[in-house]
Amino acid sequence: MNRIVEATAELISRHGLSATTLDDVVAASGTSKGQVFHYFPGGKDELLLAVAQYEADRVHAGMDERMPELSSWSAWSQWRDQLVGEYDIQGNDCPMTTLVVDLHRAGPGARALIAETAARLQSRIRTGIHQMQAKGLVGAHVDADAIAHSLVAGIHGATLLQLATGTDSHIGSVIDTAIEQLKSTASQRTPVHPT
């Protein structure tokens, strides 16, 4: 079963969902159509949901293994460099890109996995901002939720631009801009309005 899921994921990341056929999956996995339907009796939708889970698990494993706790500026810089480096290595094989670009079409189960994956990254960023606020490194008035949402959207939009254009500056620029904006808030005070 794992061989079928991994082969399907690789085909989708290389060629896209619409260009991946069952015959391609059978050839790439070294299995038969009977084996595919044995493991995935629900057919294509069930297989694609398993692929979406596989890709989501890859994203979660990367976060757990390599994403630092964002409680210092050096940690933010480390995370920025790690993301840029990973994309340079992964390119089209970026699991989050595969999820967002292709597997969102695999039905509500896949979309729920994408939402959960994005929410998990947003939670880590939000927690980091709260820790930085507690240290006085980020202004207390900063809306950590809003920054986390926009940063996740910016990062994933940047990966799509990098994929489409072949340039490698977008992801780093998104995070650098967020870091500079957050740093600038440390000296700002929430305005006091007369009552």
Automatic annotation (TrEMBL):
Residues 1-58 form the HTH tetR-type domain. SUPFAM superfamilies: Homeodomain-like, Tetracyclin repressor-like, C-terminal domain. It comes from the Bacteria. It holds the Pfam family TetR_C_13. Residues 21-40 bind DNA. Keywords: DNA-binding, Transcription, Transcription regulation. This is TetR/AcrR family transcriptional regulator. It comes from Nocardia tengchongensis.
